[in-house]
Amino acid sequence: MLLARFLSKLFSKEGIVLVDSQDQKYICGEV
After folding, report:
1. Which of 1, 16, 21, 27 could be cross-linked to 11 through a Cys-Cys bond (beta carbons 3.0 to 4.6 Å apart)?
2. 10: left (phi over 0), alpha (psi -120 to 50) or beta
3. DSSP 1-31
4. 1, 18 contact by CB (below 8 A)
5. Is the confidence at residue 31, as pLDDT, over 60?
């Protein structure tokens, strides 16, 4: 997922977890 890769660079310092409409979780950055 390109958006997740982009956000992982953007939030690499804090870390964030994205949940899409199908209830799949994408972990971005350091969690």
Report:
1. 16
2. alpha
3. -HHHHHHHHHTTTT-EEEE-TT--EEEES--
4. no
5. no
> What is the distance between the alpha carbons of residues 14 and 30, in angstroms, rounded to a whole number?
7
Distance CA 22, CA 30 (A): 23
**What contacts 27, CB < 8 A, 6 or more positions away?**
15, 17, 18
The residue type of 2 is L
- Please give the structure tokens belonging to residue 26: 């994408």
This prediction has a pTM of: 0.31
